[in-house]
Design brief:
The protein has ten helices and 13 strands. The protein is of the alpha+beta class. The protein has two domains: about 100 residues, 2-Layer Sandwich (Phosphorylase Kinase, domain 1); about 210 residues, Aminoglycoside phosphotransferase (APH), C-terminal lobe (Aminoglycoside 3'-phosphotransferase, Chain: A, domain 2).
Length: about 350
């Protein structure tokens, strides 16, 4: 194969030639190669925009482990079949490695703008931002119409959901503790005082984790970074949500924590965060004990980020302890000022 026109689209994907793209398109009968563009968003560089005579696509490659794309395909298929959520379907997976050296996926490129993109975000009015936040809440509630008989993760080997070995609340607490200890092994930024504070947050709020729920889709990384939005007539809608590699079935309220945290960073007055939660709650009622439970779920979301930052590099002031960095997020009151609870 002639690699003379090969181009590096990301460090992870490496150099890819037009001929390789054409072979991938041929495998699915998706027309003739027109162009490819790097995607500069995302942490891992797995994606590239791909245009052919048949349409616009995203090629996703170099998976993290043999099951990543199998899990993503499972959740994409399930969301498409059981909800009205805007998912990139069909999720075409080729497990062969003869073209690129790794398995790859070709999926539709979803229409719309990326609200996380600073240039596109700066073009939006305050009313636009609020409408998109509300649309995010509505979309999350729609995605959570996908339910399961148990809380658990998809097992590619059995092609079924494998239940967690403990009650969901206990699993959340174990995840929090595991993240804290792993972060402590990665750097000395996590202190004994941090551990004590984490245990205090858990102890004060853990009873709220016992309130029953119907297990549903949890993306774990639901946020505007993983979505596109488009304006239709006089309203905004979310036109695509993607990246399901961390998805599982559990308490849907856990997926409120990351968008709330990110809206808080962008809008400390919480107008966006409350609009998001309000829109979600209007379609899926928040259960009794939400205020307390949300503190634990926010703690889980923060320690996941904390552990990731200690491994790959922090994006906050490095002198901050876990408690100093995370506590403002844990103390947020997103369920006040008219929010349905």
């Amino acid at each position: 194969m002639d690699d003379s026109a090969a181009r590096v689209y990301s460090a992870r994907l490496g150099a890819i030639s037009p001929g390789q793209f054409q072979l991938a398109l041929d495998r699915f009968g998706l027309g003739q190669f027109v162009s490819a563009e790097p995607i500069f968003a995302g942490n891992f560089g797995q994606n590239v925009y791909l245009t052919s005579t048949a349409g616009a696509y995203v090629l996703r490659g170099a998976p993290f482990g043999p099951d990543q794309f199998l899990q993503e395909r499972y959740f994409t298929d399930q969301l498409h079949a059981h909800t009205g959520a805007p998912v990139p379907w069909p999720y075409r997976l080729d497990p062969a490695i003869d073209i690129f050296g790794w398995p790859y996926v070709v999926m539709p490129r979803m229409p719309g703008i990326h609200p996380y993109n600073a240039h596109e975000r700066d073009q939006l009015s305050t009313e636009d931002r609020l409408a998109i936040a509300r649309a995010m809440g509505e979309t999350l509630a729609e995605m959570q119409r996908l339910i399961s008989v148990c809380a658990g993760r998809y097992d590619a080997a059995t092609q079924a959901v494998r239940p967690f070995a403990q009650a969901f609340g206990d699993w959340v607490i174990a995840m929090i503790r595991d993240c804290v200890e792993e972060a402590a092994h990665l750097s000395d930024a996590t202190t004994d005082g941090d551990r004590a504070w984490v245990e205090t947050v858990i102890a004060r709020n853990r009873r709220a984790l016992e309130v029953p729920f119907v297990p549903c889709f949890v993306m774990q990384d639901f946020k505007e970074d993983n979505a596109v939005a488009e304006r239709v007539a006089d309203t905004w809608r979310i036109s695509g949500v993607f990246d399901y590699q961390d998805a599982y079935f559990g308490d849907g309220e856990t997926d409120l924590a990351r968008p709330v945290a990110m809206y808080f960073e962008d809008d400390p007055g919480l107008t966006l965060a409350r609009a998001f939660v309000q829109a979600y709650a209007e379609r899926k009622a928040l259960r009794p004990g939400f205020a307390e439970r949300f503190k634990v779920y926010s703690l889980l979301e923060r320690v996941l980020c904390w552990q990731f930052g200690q491994r790959h590099g922090v994006w906050w002031k490095p002198e901050l302890s876990l408690q100093a960095w995370a506590r403002p997020y844990i103390d947020l009151q997103v369920f006040g000022s008219g929010t349905v609870v």
